[in-house]
Design brief:
Blueprint lengths: L1 H9 L11 H13 L3 H6 L8 H13 L6 H24 L4 H13 L4 H5 L4 H21 L13 H13 L5 H16 L4 H27 L15 H13 L4 H9 L5 H25 L2 H13 L16 H23 L3 H46 L8 E5 L18 H4 L3 H6 L7 E4 L6 H4 L8 E5 L6 E4 L6
Parallel strand pairs: 1-2, 1-3
Antiparallel strand pairs: 3-4
Helix pairs in contact: 1-5, 1-6, 2-4, 5-6, 5-8, 6-16, 6-17, 8-9, 8-10, 9-11, 10-11, 10-15, 13-14, 14-16, 15-16, 16-17
Amino acid sequence: MAAVVVALAFWRAFGLFRFYDDWYFAREADRAVRDHAFLPFLVTPAAQHWSPLWQAFDYLNAWTMGWQSDALIRSAIVVMVIAGLRVFGRLMMRLQLTIGATAVGLGVLGLHHMNAIAYYSFDCYSQIAADLCTWSSVSLVLGDAIADRDAPPGRGRAVAPVLLFTAGVLIKEQALAALAGVTLLAVWFTVVERADADRRRTVLGVWAAMVVVGVTFALLRFMAGRWLAQPYPLCIVCVPGNLAMFLGALALPAPTVVAYHALMNPTSNAATVAIVGLGAALVCGFVGLGIAASGRARHATLITGLAVVTLFPIALLARVGELHAHTAVFWYAALVAFAVDGWAAKLRTAGRHRVGLFAVLAVLYIAVLLTSLRINLGEMRVTGERAASLLSAFRAAARDLPAGSVVLARGLENVKAPGDHSLYRLTTAGMLLYEGDASLQFVSPPGVTVVDERDWPDVGAGMKRPAGPRTYVADFRGGAVSVRERPPQMP
């Protein structure tokens, strides 16, 4: 099942092209490779992140593959997805779910359309890596806590969750979700469902060690100048809305790009809104009634709690995106698996034909998720092709510029067109080539410096502002790319 899921998710998913903020990390890694500055690059914050292991992989990719190829990045993602599916399967085995329910859960986890940005972007593999560490560490603690009471607790396995958590926070700060998850487990197995003393001590010991790691990471991040998550401010009042967006998107069977446009103008898209709403309601009803019939309400409540708390710390921020819902996909898939088990047990007494019909509906649901995932892949592929086309046009227009010239890039404002949504559909030059000096530097002639129009007033701080025939303007407005000499009167 895992092999089938991976094949379906990544068929024709290699050979994509960069766009949007993929450029920033590629530029920084490319500079570090050219300057032979691996260690300084490793410990220097990148944008709002302080992520040494993420930056180490970016350096490796720039050194071995270059900025254009996604072969290494996509291959690493495939390996991590396989590992995540394995973690899920083993947890379902510890929870004693049937093979059929586990198979459906694997399909939901691997083929949910909310995976698209993490799967097909160039710089979101860090989200998959951080979430894999989160899922693995929390699953190890949960699996040991609910194990057969006659079996000895996994004392040796208590080290693994802490090591995975440590690796996760060094990849991306979203791995702090594992600490939130284990905190919930510590409360659950101490207060709500009292485990035996040995297992309770094991859970609390893992939790205490992870608190030490989390506090140490926060201090190191503060020392690196990246306290909290600026430029993403805290917003406590945003938590309900963020959780509703994340959890609602998980229940949505259709790709969010479809729902987004319908909800932005519901009067003109009444049919789409009705279909999308009905689909989400049917999914929620299916999962809720199935869990009720499964007789596993306590475990399902715990899994639901993990889906919510592991959205920490992202749910606390004012700026969030669809990528951040990826952490909860694992737990949502587990809830679907619980529901499938419940429905199968309920319908087994009603006759084989009803069980067969239910199996067809489960396969149909996974097929809808897969179709939505592939739609998102198509959107991202086309978006990357638009970015590649703009870069080709700029390369052709700037081919003959003399070394030492400076090109002022205009029209690369960070705004979306009315029909653009998330990373699935971007059409403006500014979004396709975001961080314009980062993307354009890869195709500019040797010795030519590119300066984004937004940074033009600050050029004097880093270098003498040039004048005369060595200064040019690249204009990306109007859908075409032109490079011309900068008029003397231009501000």
